[in-house]
Structures
1.
Amino acid sequence: MSGEIPAGASPSGVLFRGREESSPARAEYDLPRRDLQKPLNYGIAGLSLIPVRREPSERSEMVTQILYGETYEVTGFLPGWLQVRLDFDGYEGWIDQKMSTPLAQRRYERIRKSTPAVTTDIFSLIPIDQDQNLMLVAGSSLPLWRPYKKQFSLDGPPVRFEGHVQCGAPADVRTFMVTQALKYFNAPYLWGGRSPFGIDCSGFTQIIYKMAGLPIPRDASLQVKMGTSLSFVEETSPGDLAFFDDEEGNIVHVGLLWKRNKIIHASGKVRIDNVDQYGIFNVDTRRYTHKMRVMKKLLP
């Protein structure tokens, strides 16, 4: 998540989104060493969002979110809590066991091998039964998607989905990414968030790239290690990423470059500001807010 780091966050000293720390959600616990039941070894998000906590407590810091249809491996457990590792980006943390939908290994492996299908509407609804719907946010995954029937299957009967779905990279990937990014305009900043209800800076760039069929890491400190460095803003193209550091040189912020000298990023909210070789110039406060470290081209 890099970006605005809340006071007192990450007391253990782990790097969340930009600051060096040991590892998100690797606190010391005496986990039961008995083997988990096979159906509980794997899971999938059957809710719109599942908060992932740093520690097994509702009061603990939310380090990321699992979106609908994303799978994970269960690596440990405590009463009422599961320690999980997300398949999409390898992130680790704790989730409330009541929010987990367990998967048998065979179905888990089948989903993992299938072609990824991702929702691109900012919000959409799917029917649960005759009386209930479930809201999906942009970037949700549709397991075992069958485009000719407009159906997917989570852990039960096929579900029909009438919204827009992206499988793989679109033809004009840069235009697509900017179009998707602008849908988040004014979405509130939320540490650990990955949805239009609340999102942090690296969650924002990760979800935009996910919808474009290009998986990237969760944290800005890892995203910055990808791609080819660019020396000047004039060399960039829409969809490239810009990274910003603090006085110690730690990557603390990332944003999606748009047209020349414009950047879309999550800082207080998803907003559009000016950018140059010095950093981000806030159009409201008329001052620089983030110091440029490097610009990266991740796309062909």
2.
Amino acid sequence: MCHIGYLHPVSLTVKLAMVFTTLWMFPSNHMTGTSELKLLPEPTKMVSKEHLERLKSTILINSDSVYERLNLVSAQKPRHRTKEFITLDPYNPQYKQSFENLNELKYPIPDTGELYELNEKKGKFVFRGQESVARWFSTVETNMDVCALKFEDSSLIEYQLETFSSRSEALAADYLVTHVGHCGTCSSLSNLAIYLEHRDLTTVARVCGRKRNAKKIKTCLMKSVGFDEPCAET
């Protein structure tokens, strides 16, 4: 769940990731995040291989705390955190609610039909994901949360990610805002570099999605695309 947080539209991610390339082009005082960064004049401008490699070489040092804040829970038949999977399954247990009237639903019905099942006659609503994901989708249009980073030192290698309730709060804490929405398993700079490197991930993602099980899908996303393990799993 790459915005999750669970990161969403690739076009938006590419535009946001351009901010990171400016770190290498204008590195002097940008570590503090106290000033606005300039986006590249052309959002579609190709990013050099050197910039991509520098993004990939960065190290997120608080990935565990970022993951824990997603508040995922274990399913009755959990996908255990083992050598094969280091994250819990964000899609199970699915959030379910019974109702007599649609107005009783705790969360609004998503715009994307693939995300839910609705049976008005039986009064059953099923969101194809955990409740924490349903909660996030219900506020995605109004939530002002942002994901931001702060480098540990002037080498611009090790950094931390934090979720803030607003852009101004992040900047006041000397963090650089990376994207709208809370930090998630695909929010690292190395994963954003993959979005920049592969401008069209639709085809390869569909190929990976045809694999028979979650383990094979994960392996495909890591080897064929380049996502790190937490991002490929979710």
